[in-house]
Amino acid sequence: MESKRKILVRYRRGDGIRAISRELNISRNTVRDIIRSKGNIKSDYVRVIQPTPRLGDYTEKLEKMLRDNKHSKPKKTGKILFEELQIYGYQGSYSAVSRYIYAWKEKNSEVNINACVPLYFAPGEAYQFDWSSDQIMLGNEIVSVKVAHFVLCYSRKKFVYIYFNETQEMVFDAHVRAFIFFGGTPTKGIYDNMKTAVSKVLKGSNREWNPRFEKLCAHYLVEPLACTPAKGNEKGRVERQVQIDRQQFFTPIPKASTLQELNDILMSRVIAYNSTHHHPEYKDKTIDEAYEQERSFLVSAPVLFDSCKEIDVKVSTTCLVRYENNNYSVHCSCAGKVVQCKVYADYIVFIYHAREVGRHNRKFTKGATSYDWRHYLPILAHKPGALRNGTPFLDMDLPEELKEVRQRLEQHSTGTRDFAHILSYIATESIESVVSACAQAIKIGTISKDAILNILLRKKDETKVSESKNYQEHYALKHIPKADCRIYDNLLKLGGKS
To answer: How many Cβ atoms from other residues are within 10 Å of residue 242's Cβ?
Structure first.
């Protein structure tokens, strides 16, 4: 049946059982059975119309409660009406009462309860944002991903970007990228009640916004608005765009070797779509042509928002920080201390006393460790033997000059210790200086610890002398004064008279 196909298609795209159930109006158990059986279930029956529950003697009582509730303020929820009915002796289920309430409202409503009023947005007034779950192929592996969708409400210009998850830093990164793409921001942003933005749903349209999300909105002068729960029509533009995007960009499943490569491909397709597809209301214009009318109404931000999540973390004695079941190295001076962790969409930075002490590409697998061998260099000065068995040094990505020096030195019994000593100078000098000294030692054919350190320190002294010469030249006299010794002759004459 058609329902089976729709369920399986959405499941393969990455939609969850709850989302499929809500979208297709089919029970979660039925959705789960169809997925488990891959569509091969015996019964094709899916109940569309729920029979009216038998409330017996309580039907009239419930109807009176509903009529009274229709004119009361505030209105009672179905749960409260159910609890009041229990006081009168009702022993049936809440679902039976809920179905009756829905049927009664539909019958007695002046309008169709599913009817919506078409919405109008002025240029630069609002954008809508939503997430979707889809599938991509990275290499030879199918991966479930989260896709951020933005659409300008007036021009319908869209922006789409793929992430591995929809955590707060991904939300921030998506907004920064979208606003750069749009060249500014409208005055309002329309969202559903996602946990990364809304801390608490209050009465009516009021929301308690996440403090960090509020900072993002304040930075871009955007007023966030949240939809009423279960009222997807309030952000219908982006809801429709999600379905269109799946057809345009994710059918068939897109392929690439990396996520960045896939996002680059996706961006080119989004640009092509905006430039060639006509506006759904202004048929004589493409989306980009409508956007040109909207562009001047957008507000530009002079500085990009720092799109990260900030937390404090403690460094282990092995100079590692654990985040989301993965480990990242920081400078050995921070061992045992608490550092600030700034988590971005695709990389992570560690700060200690306003100084960067570590930077890594984020790991999205579990149980991975990212080492930067440079973080451990000061330890080599005291423990050169760590170079042989130290995990951070096992897969060192060294410049070719250092690789050659290491290979030549390790032919001797003290070679590992000598090379460790040379590497330790990177911590106090720079890797460029050490590489340059190694290159010169290779050139003259004298590769030893003493020769390389001698070259390194001599270059350092030459730099100091050069700086000193520049200092002297800067302050040297340009016009030498002429000597006038007549005053001394006069003094001598006076002295002679006395």
So the answer is: 17
